[in-house]
Model the fold of this input.
Amino acid sequence: MVSTDNLTRLLDDLVTRVDGADLAMVLSPDGLPLAASHQVDDELGDQVASVTAGLHALAVATGRQTETGTVRQIIVQMRRAYLFIATTRGGAILTVRFDGEVEVGDVAYEVALFAGQAHHHLPVYLEPAPPHPAAG
Done:
């Protein structure tokens, strides 16, 4: 069961602890918001969830099409910010926005570390089984 209070506290801690972070959210694999840091109101949460789910879906499709494996992390660099998206071991999606002055390697490490530990507070999402080849 998801403990939203604990997850919100962990997201708030991530935003407070990591320089340059200004918001964080966790989504289910289908893009439904599970928890967000306190900086995220409902409208912003819906917008971030939509963008994150779309980018994640494109990355998953690219991985399948190119047979390069599952998505671990997506980094979007904008003029004044970065958006980091990472999957947790259980299949949830973490997204964190940082200002454009951060050291990308340090931030990527922090996001990966958080994503690696977040599964303790999230349900496990199973991937759909691959389609069976047509009998013929």
Observations:
- The mean pLDDT is 85.
- DSSP finds three helices and five strands in the chain.
